[in-house]
Write a structure and sequence with these properties.
heterodimer, A: 328 residues, mainly alpha, Cytochrome Bc1 Complex, Chain D, domain 2, 10 helices, 4 strands, elongated, B: 439 residues, alpha+beta, 15 helices, 42% helix
């Protein structure tokens, strides 16, 4: 640039033309009557520019910069974004390891008693729940129709830590030997019961949770009871309180997984229900599953561990609360 | 200058006994545990309004003082001025007075010049480093950190802060100086709004000084002013203004010109006070031969004093009324409520207990506004609503479940009450209980 200017000045010695309007020297270049003023760049700007050029050369050397056949120049610094990602992930792993080592050794009860491990389990479980489980159970584990609400105290397969652990690991109606497995018969579809008989059973089932009124039931409860004893009691129990061995729901409580209105319950008896849940044993590592177990147990419905096979359930009187169902 | 510098450098070392479980440094901003200590006052992040109050108080004091005495803040207390003065003082000690410095500046590079300039900058940097170091002491336990400097056991974070502050001190007091007041300081810009003719300012007695001119010994003082145009006032001015042109925005009321002029007046056996602290009204009155006293009591001053009193009382009340216990309750968002198999409705809440005392405490949580209620606490170990343990000087967080056997109309207003087991301290928090009914 300066060479160019010098050439100009050599050619036009003593002809330094000054623009009358701005009082600035011109370069002598003219296009259609418009003359170029000679306003040099500010010096600080030039210096920044030069430093940037130097910096870019340094960058080419040190960092990956140019595409070449078969990839790109690697740079002397050996930097890649993959490596940076790996480093930062390793850093996280290293930070977690302090707790993870202790967590791995501790039993569920020890974790529940240790504030640090407890917080670690709850934080990890909460994050992993939202990543893996929230798709079906909802971000707050509140569930949807057919997907149980995990906050309440109603459990199909048991709410003790070991039960939850088992369910998460092996799933429900999954393709492995340890999975939770049962199948309710489709009483109507398979012709085991006539529609009128199903209506009677439905009435009886509603009566179990004191909800006979308001559901249009005008059938013979005795008839329903007889059919229930013959067909349903083997799994749900004579008293209708269910059996967690078969994942048979308690029919006397106020919680309906598939809806508590008459049509839904009829549909359940007619076609049967068989929800499934994936087994997570091979998808998540065992510490993650343990974190999830603690997290779910502490969501509000966690039960004490059974001793001698007897389940400890908190008995609370069932008051007559009208309309206490999941009406849509 | 000595006083302000002394306060700055020594404050972090003042101790203040707060008992166990709390730092014993009188003035400490503990960023790690997010608490600030100022003698008997202790501020948690939740009480940041106290900080706002202190700032308002400081602003009003500034206005008040400015309207009374002019820019005494700028001249005597502002760190920018104090450190600039300190740096200028170093410069003068090492390089001599203004003329000598000018000569040195224009001189060819010699060993002597390099030595003098290098010494100046070295001392500047040392001062700047001490300043930065002292600043960091306010955020850490001062003696511990002080010793760790000698054992070279200081964290990189602290070194980064010290480095940055050293550089900024060096830059501001060594080079930027009065540019800061003129171009960067907002106070310099709006202080003119607080001035009137009864404000104390640095003024040049024009009537007495003019017409100025050189004066030879023995010449008569008749028909001429007392200013001998020695420019001593201009030379000493850190802002580089000529006070004889009248009050200017740049003037920081440091009074250096007053001292310089008085020295000169003494030398030529004239009365002191050609340049002096005075109000415009008073100076005019004197020039016209009237005796008039300073008018400090004006409506403006009284307003400021009144505001000052109000803010001070409010602050005092806030500090006195500061509770040592606070309860905060946050309703779970998802799910809002849960129906249990018995039909009961359960709501979840996160409760935060701010235990601002310096002892470990156990609290009891109770609830009003809902009948037949069970409170369940989810936390590590066996914790119940009757035994919520919170470590001294910290926040305890618990997840609680409230379930009720009744069918409430929703949403229902409820009130949590937290009671300290060991004393009668309580705090309440209004919350809401939600069931599917009505929402």
């Amino acid at each position: 640039m300066s060479d160019h200017q010098n050439d100009n000045q050599d050619q036009n010695t003593d002809k330094k033309e000054v623009d009358a309007h701005s009082g600035v020297e011109t370069t002598g270049h003219e296009w259609d009557g418009i003359k170029e003023l000679n306003n040099p760049l500010p010096r600080w700007w030039l210096w920044v520019f030069y430093v940037c050029i130097l910096w870019s050369v340094w960058y080419w050397v040190v960092y990956p910069a140019w595409p070449v056949a078969g990839g790109h120049t690697k740079g002397t610094g050996g930097y890649t974004q993959f490596k940076e990602l790996e480093d930062s992930q390793n850093e996280i792993v290293a930070r977690q390891k302090v707790y993870l080592d202790r967590f791995e050794q501790a039993s569920f009860q020890e974790i529940l008693d240790d504030p640090e491990l407890y917080a670690f389990a709850m934080a990890g479980g909460s994050a992993m729940f939202k990543d893996n489980c929230a798709t079906c159970h909802g971000t707050g584990a509140q569930g949807f129709k057919g997907y149980p609400n995990l906050n309440d105290d109603d459990w199909l397969w048991g709410g003790a830590l070991s039960d939850i652990h088992q369910t998460i690991q092996y799933g429900i109606r999954e393709d492995n030997l340890d999975t939770r497995l049962s199948q309710m018969p489709a009483f109507g579809k398979e012709g085991m019961l006539k529609n009128t008989e199903i209506e009677a059973v439905v009435d009886y089932v509603f009566s179990l949770s004191s909800q006979a009124a308001g559901h249009g039931g005008d059938h013979d409860l005795a008839k329903g009871q007889t059919i229930f004893a013959e067909q349903c009691a083997s799994c749900h129990g004579l008293d209708g309180k269910g059996d967690r061995e078969f994942g048979a729901p308690n029919l006397t409580d106020k919680i309906w997984l598939y809806g508590g209105d008459r049509a839904s319950v009829f549909e359940t008896v007619y076609s049967a229900r068989s929800g499934m849940m994936p087994a997570w044993k091979d998808r998540l590592d065992k510490n993650t599953i343990r974190q999830l177990t603690i997290y779910l147990h502490q969501l509000g419905g966690g039960e004490e561990e059974r001793e001698d096979g007897q389940e400890e359930t908190v008995e609370r009187p069932v008051e007559d609360i009208p309309d206490a169902t999941y009406s849509e | 200058m000595t006083l302000t510098l002394g306060v700055y450098y020594l404050t972090p070392f003042i101790r203040w006994d707060r008992g166990p479980n709390a730092p014993d440094q009188a003035v400490l901003i503990d960023l790690e545990s997010a608490k600030a200590y100022w003698f008997w006052i202790e501020i948690w992040p939740q009480e940041v309004y106290l900080l706002t109050g202190i700032l308002i108080l400081a602003a009003v004091v500034l206005f008040f003082v400015t309207s009374l005495f002019g820019r005494v803040w700028c001249g005597y207390l502002c760190p920018q001025t104090v450190w600039t003065d300190l740096f200028v003082w170093v410069e003068r000690i090492v390089q001599g007075d203004r003329n000598a410095r000018k000569k040195l500046h224009e001189a060819r590079w010699s060993f002597d010049k390099v030595r003098k300039i290098a010494t100046t900058h070295f001392i500047w940097l040392v001062i700047a480093w001490c300043t930065a170091g002292s600043f960091v002491l306010y955020f850490n336990d001062a003696p511990t950190l002080f010793w760790s400097f000698f054992t070279f056991d200081v964290s990189p974070t602290i070194l980064t802060f010290i480095g940055g502050l050293t550089f900024s001190t060096y830059l501001m007091a060594g080079f930027a100086r009065e540019q800061v007041c003129t171009y960067m300081c907002p106070y310099a810009r709006f202080q003119s709004a607080m001035f009137d003719c009864d404000t104390l300012i640095i003024g040049y007695d024009e009537q007495r000084g003019e017409a100025r001119g050189k004066h030879k010994k023995g010449e008569s003082w008749d028909d001429r002013g007392h200013c001998i145009d020695c420019t001593a006032c201009v030379q000493v001015c850190p802002m580089g203004i000529d006070i004889r042109d009248g009050l200017q925005m740049e003037c920081i009321a440091c009074g250096l010109c007053v001292d310089a002029c008085n020295n000169v007046m003494d030398k030529i056996d004239l009365k002191r006070g050609l340049i002096r602290y005075d109000t415009v009204n008073h100076m005019e009155a004197e020039q016209q031969g009237r005796k008039e006293s300073f008018k400090f009591l004006q409506s403006r001053t009284i307003y400021y004093a009144a505001i000052l009193a109000v803010v001070a009382v409010a602050m005092f009340a806030a500090v006195i009324g500061r509770t040592s216990l606070e309860l905060h309750v946050l309703h779970d968002r998802n799910p809002l409520f849960v129906q249990l198999s018995s039909g009961e409705i359960r709501n979840g809440y996160i409760i935060k207990i701010l235990n601002k005392t310096h002892d470990h405490r156990t609290f009891r949580l109770s609830l009003e506004g809902l009948d037949d209620v069970q409170i369940e606490v989810k936390a590590a170990g066996s914790v119940s609503a009757d035994s919520l343990y919170v470590v001294a000087d910290s926040i305890g967080t618990y997840h609680i479940f409230v379930s009720s056997n009744m069918a409430p109309d929703s949403p229902r207003d409820i009130t949590f009450t937290l009671t300290d087991q060991g004393s009668d301290m309580t705090d309440t928090y209004d919350a809401v209980f939600i069931s599917k009914r009505g929402r």
